[in-house]
Design goal:
Elements lengths: L10 E2 L10 E4 L35 H6 L11 H11 L6 E4 L9 H15 L5 E6 L10 H8 L3 E5 L5 H8 L8 H14 L4 E8 L2 E3 L7 E3 L3 H10 L7 E5 L6
Parallel strand pairs: 2-3, 3-4, 4-5, 5-6, 6-9
Antiparallel strand pairs: 1-2, 7-8
Helix pairs in contact: 2-3, 3-4
Bound molecules: iron/sulfur cluster (SF4).
Length: 253
Amino acid sequence: MTDAIQEGSIVYRFKTPAEDANTLYVNMIGRYGCWNDCLFCGRPRLDPAEGSDGSGGWRPNVYEEKAGTSLYLRKSPSVVTVLDAIDNEIKQEDREIAIVGLGEPLMELPKVCGVIGSIKGKYGVHKIGVRVDTDGLVKCVYPEPAKRLEDAGLDEVRISVNAVNGEDYVRLCRPTLGSTPWVFGKLVDFVRDCVSSSMITKASFVIGFECDDPSGRGGMIATRPQQEYEDFAGTLGIPPEDIIWRQYVPTPD
Ligand code: SF4
């Protein structure tokens, strides 16, 4: 059966016990946009208008299952629209606003900085912390992104690193900004800029993933042992306690 495509939610909460109930999540990316096409990504691969389940219909992805709502936005909402959505949903007991996606939030860096600045002004710097989860490629596109986020008042940034070198990164994360290790160099620069800032900076790594190499060259593509990621994170100034491990969970067919 073909479901109508729902316009998704700008704000949402995860309904699973593993997530902090006092975090309000913000989605401000159009069409699940991202600079990567990671092999392990749980987003739909196709435009829902074309049918992400291959049958002309639409079904929720893993994040939408957890959130209990569609997160597909036809286009990125304005800063005012995002702030209105936050205002309607925020609760007294909320302690964090997390700008996460669905997709890569820093594709809209100027808007994200506008939202952060307004949140900090409106809800108070001590009451509500603001966090961004990012693929870390923003420095490929915008100048001085870490400084802009810090100046806007961002408290915490979580960067998906997922590799120890450019070759691994390109094979696993398939960046659309260029299929060369150059993008990984920009990611590493961004991590270092964030570590040097006042923002709490965490790095995340997917572990436990492997698949056949889809390029047709043969062989497997797999994530590395945790220790190798931990050692690499150390070279970026990220201590073990600031690493987030994301155990790969296959998307159900
Ligand atoms: S960076 Fe995140 S959203 Fe983008 S393709 Fe990779 S896993 Fe998916």
